[in-house]
Design goal:
With 279 residues, this protein is mainly α. It has one domain. Helix content is 68%, strand content 3%. The protein is built from eleven helices and two strands. It has a two-stranded antiparallel ribbon with strand order 1-2. Strand 1 and strand 2 form a beta hairpin. Helix 3 runs antiparallel to helix 7 and helix 4 crosses helix 8. It is globular and about 65 Å long. The two termini are 24 Å apart.
């Protein structure tokens, strides 16, 4: 299995679209770093000016933790599309290239072939999130240093001390990997149904956009759909930056997202085993 996974990773990283994903995240992180270097103090002043009459703010609030937090907030907007560029091509690409029969003629079961491709997709997703952490939190700490993390909520303001932040980011990035794994599994499912990678990319993003819209509508029967929409839980990492943290909500979201990953992969496995490969 390790050999098959290595082959699938080689297939992923020999394609240009893989590096488009990493390049986009790198560019996004660097642009935010430059913007905060130029306008960061103004951003902090603007965010806290209403509170300065009542509170005295002392400390380094423009720091790497703030950069990491700001970049994490872009996760559900940018990262899903970058993931579908790769995950949507993993099975459809074989059909497009006409290599399905060659792939499945090897002395490896369809289940193992499918599992190796899916695991390779998850590894790509993990590396993408790790790279996001590096260009935001890592470079942010190098450029701006450490300090207190100030989190602005609609209803309150949360200030976290520098020694109480890293574990929150670690869990947040792991949660980000889990939530983006749902996108990987969804694109992987669509990729198993068609013979062109464009279809899975468009279909996955359409599902994400529709679910995001439905999750933000709060009227009629749509309220009862929310608990079943995976997009409703993708921003639950934000609860890790509350004080105290509501771990019950966080664990619930983890379970639901993990069930989505398992369920989507299960459907893909069932369909792929039954599929008649003609090319």
């Amino acid at each position: 299995m390790f050999t098959i996974i290595s082959i699938e990773l080689y297939k992923i990283f020999r394609k240009l679209r893989t590096y488009i994903s990493f390049g986009t995240i790198g560019l996004l992180g660097i642009l935010i770093l430059i913007a905060m270097l130029v306008e960061g103090k103004g951003y902090i002043d603007m965010a806290t000016h209403k509170l300065k009459d009542s509170f005295s703010f002392v400390g380094n609030f423009l720091n790497g933790y703030l950069i990491g937090y700001l970049v994490l907030n872009t996760l559900t907007i940018h990262i899903p599309f970058l993931i579908t560029l790769v995950a949507g091509d993993m099975l459809a690409g074989e059909a497009t290239a006409g290599t399905y029969r060659l792939l499945l003629s090897r002395p490896v079961s369809r289940s193992n072939v499918l599992a190796s491709k899916f695991i390779a997709g998850l590894i790509f997703t993990f590396l993408l999130i790790f790279f996001l952490a590096f260009v935001s939190l890592g470079l942010g700490l190098i450029v701006f240093g450490t300090g207190e993390l100030i989190v602005f909520r609609p209803e309150n303001l949360v200030i976290l001390t520098s020694n109480d932040v890293l574990w929150r980011f670690l869990l947040a990035y792991l949660f980000a990997f889990l939530s983006m794994s749902v996108i990987t599994a969804l694109a992987f499912l669509f990729s198993s149904l068609v013979e062109n990678a464009i279809g899975p990319i468009v279909a996955t993003m359409a599902v994400v956009i529709v679910f995001l819209i439905l999750a933000n509508l709060d009227f009629g029967f749509l309220k009862y759909l929310k608990p079943y929409l995976f997009t409703n839980y993708m921003t639950t990492w934000n609860t890790l930056f509350d004080n105290p943290v509501d771990f019950s909500e966080f664990i619930k979201a983890c379970r639901i997202l993990a069930l989505h990953v398992a369920g989507l992969y299960g459907v893909t496995w069932f369909l792929f085993r039954k599929r008649d490969i003609l090319t």
